[in-house]
Design goal:
318 residues; single chain; mainly alpha; 15 helices
């Protein structure tokens, strides 16, 4: 039987989680307070810049307000939200937007990971190869949109001639499905380098010792990929998917350039543009903007919940 523990021994036992925590010196506290004072003005300005448009849009969303007749503005409560949520056009655009996001991010994740592996493992002409892969991301989205619109145009484009089984007179922008595919190709080509760059940073965090240990244990390349590399890249993959999914959900430029929202290619961001800029309906446009903002928050929440990654633990802070 173990000897009883005296009360003084219990008091001297350090509490869990505090034994290895270093004490913060007075100088460190002063530096932290100085850093907070230096950052505070920028934080306040950024809050004002971001909060004012959001609050203004929320305020206008409760009004019927058109720039063509500003004197007729009237408070209507949540009628704009009810109209939007009961309109089939809104839900159709939400569906198209989700389709853009899921397909493009999924393909970019696979291709971007392959590019990241190449950039991480290449031993010759590393700078040239990395620069070549990242070139599309450096091109302005509108420029790449016009380039791909020209490529898919049947009058003078080259895509029809490259693809077997498609006639030279096939019009990619005449129907919904081919037009959506053309927009997705443009989006994937433009933003895959960004995905590969984020995944490359995650690959750099994977220890070579673990990979070598897996090799010694007889693991195949696929086993090392699924059991060692990907689990240790989970945080980086979540960040890459989160950033790209939020960006893809707000897709606007390529649609504006390539189809102007025609033949069922309109996204929710383009619907907000049409209501606010083209039709001058600030009340309805503001309500749609608020719904877009809330849906973006929902997408971010779902992605974080899906991956269930503790970023503090991934950084080694716990």
């Amino acid at each position: 039987m173990a000897p009883p523990v005296r009360d003084d021994q219990q008091r001297e036992k350090p509490s869990p989680g505090k034994a290895d925590r270093p004490e913060v010196s007075d100088r460190a506290r002063q530096e932290q307070r100085l850093a907070q004072r230096l950052v505070a003005p920028a934080v306040v300005i950024m809050l004002l810049v971001t909060a004012f448009p959001i609050l203004r849009a929320l305020y206008l969303s409760f009004y019927t307000y058109s720039l063509t007749s500003p004197e007729d503005r009237a408070f209507i409560g949540i009628d704009n939200y009810v109209t939007a949520l009961t309109d089939g056009l809104f839900w159709r655009d939400i569906g198209v937007t989700v389709l853009y996001m899921v397909v493009t991010v999924g393909i970019e994740l696979v291709i971007g990971f392959a590019f990241a592996m190449v950039m991480h493992r290449v031993v010759f002409a590393r700078g040239l190869i990395r620069t070549s892969i990242l070139i599309p991301y450096g091109i302005i989205t509108v420029v790449s949109g016009f380039a791909w619109q020209f490529a898919f145009t049947y009058q003078n484009g080259f895509i029809n001639g490259w693809l077997p089984g498609i006639g030279d007179s096939f019009n990619w922008f005449g129907e919904t499905t081919p037009a959506v595919i053309a927009i997705m190709v443009s989006e994937i080509w433009k933003t895959t380098p960004f995905m590969s760059l984020l995944l490359l940073a995650g690959l750099a965090q994977v220890s070579d010792d673990m990979i070598e240990a897996a090799k010694v244990d007889g693991a195949t390349w696929w086993q090392r990929l699924w059991r060692v590399i990907l689990p240790n890249m989970r945080a980086a993959i979540m960040v890459a998917v989160l950033f790209r999914a939020l960006d893809a959900y707000r897709i606007f430029d390529n649609i504006f350039v390539m189809t102007s929202g025609a033949v069922g290619t309109e996204s929710i961001s383009f619907l907000v543009y049409r209501q606010t800029i083209e039709q001058f309906q600030l009340g309805m446009g503001s309500a749609l903007s608020v719904l877009l903002f809330l849906s973006v928050l929902l997408v971010a929440f779902l992605i974080v919940k899906l991956f269930r990654v503790d970023l503090a633990k991934a950084r080694g802070e716990e």
